[in-house]
Amino acid sequence: MYRRVNLEGWQEFVPYLCFALIAGAFILILIRALRMKKSEVEHLSNMPLRDDAELQSSIDKQSDEAK
After folding, report:
1. Is the CB of residue 62 less than 8 Å from the CB of residue 40?
2. Contact at 8 Å (CB) between 37 and 63?
3. Residue 22's closest CA among 11, 12, 30?
4. Predicted TM-score (pTM) of this structure
């Protein structure tokens, strides 16, 4: 009734490879999020709440600080 799936030799590594790729992407995103500047975090967290003019002035202010 139920059959066990028999994988060939090269197919046994596919789940491990996929897990490694997903874990690597997650770790890279996590490192990038942890290294963000506080001003950038505040800017991204307030984006949906600001109107266009206020958002543009915030972007201009950040670009001036970066120079």
Report:
1. yes
2. no
3. 30
4. 0.56
